[in-house]
Amino acid sequence: MNSWPPVETTVPDRHPDAPAPDTELPEHYAHCFGCGDSVEHGLRLRATAGEGMTVRSRFTVTTEHQGAPGLAHGGLLACAFDEALGSAVGHLLRRPAVTAKLETDFLRPVPVGTTLVIDAHLDGIAGRKVYVSAEGTVEGTTAVRARALFITVDLKHFVDHGRPEDIRRVAENPALLGRSIDVNP
Ligand SMILES: CCCCCCCCCC(=O)SCCNC(=O)CCNC(=O)[C@H](O)C(C)(C)COP(=O)(O)OP(=O)(O)OC[C@H]1O[C@@H](n2cnc3c(N)ncnc32)[C@H](O)[C@@H]1OP(=O)(O)O
């Protein structure tokens, strides 16, 4: 296995305004497929701030999330990890960031009806590069591992690249966004 993080990093402190351990974290965007309550068959991840640089997320697999009969689709599991890892970056650093690279190791099938518990850990930063990793367990057995590189961006990234009508909808109704990111970090 390659060394991780792959470059020299420092381990940042939790942002002083990061949610305290055991705080239930809000959805970051109502229409997010990973966490949004407005997405009918979305993953609806629920997350809780942990100690240090950790966040615990939970994803319950429903019949809409199948790949093979009775089993979670691997791409949706990767999505759950993207969300869980991004949540750790966003809540603990309170800086906007996007996924540049995401690796997943699928170790065990994840059945419909089970809950995957994803423990994400922020491993280090190097400039704009943020390295995070996570382990997902089902009833105590490791089923999926993932690691990712996020790149911090300014809010202009979303304004420049997002579809104008969606940007407008958020501007008109800021309650669609969670309050976990600093606008001027
Ligand atoms: C509370 C909030 C919770 C939020 C949860 C959200 C979870 C979901 C998160 C997502 O899914 S985000 C959506 C999926 N990702 C994207 O759409 C990102 C698309 N990619 C981009 O927009 C750009 O490629 C990116 C902003 C990531 C980087 O472009 P930039 O022009 O700003 O930077 P640049 O290309 O110079 O890269 C910066 C550094 O990262 C490195 N880098 C970038 N991509 C890399 C890559 N793929 N692999 C390795 N290194 C990479 C790059 O080499 C460079 O290293 P150095 O600083 O050492 O020169």
UniProtKB/TrEMBL annotation:
GO MF annotation terms: hydrolase activity
Reactions performed catalytically: tetradecanoyl-CoA + H2O = tetradecanoate + CoA + H(+); decanoyl-CoA + H2O = decanoate + CoA + H(+); octanoyl-CoA + H2O = octanoate + CoA + H(+); hexadecanoyl-CoA + H2O = hexadecanoate + CoA + H(+)
InterPro entries: HotDog_dom_sf (IPR029069), THEM4/THEM5_acyl-CoA_thioest (IPR052365), Thioestr_dom (IPR006683)
EC number(s) recorded for this UniProt protein: 3.1.2.2
Membrane-protein topology: Peripheral membrane protein
Gene3D superfamilies assigned to the protein according to its UniProt record, in alphabetical order: Hotdog Thioesterase (3.10.129.10)
Alphabetically ordered keywords of this record: Apoptosis, Cell membrane, Cell projection, Cytoplasm, Fatty acid metabolism, Hydrolase, Lipid metabolism, Membrane, Transit peptide
Bilayer-crossing regions: none
Main location: membrane
UniProt family annotation: Belongs to the THEM4/THEM5 thioesterase family.
EC primary class: hydrolase
UniProt-listed SUPFAM superfamilies: Thioesterase/thiol ester dehydrase-isomerase (SSF54637)
Lineage: Bacteria, Bacillati, Actinomycetota, Actinomycetes, Pseudonocardiales
Subcellular location: Cell projection, Ruffle membrane; Cytoplasm; Membrane
Name of the protein in question: Acyl-coenzyme A thioesterase THEM4
Organism (species): Actinokineospora guangxiensis
Annotated stretches, region: Disordered: 1-23
Record domain Thioesterase: where: 70-141
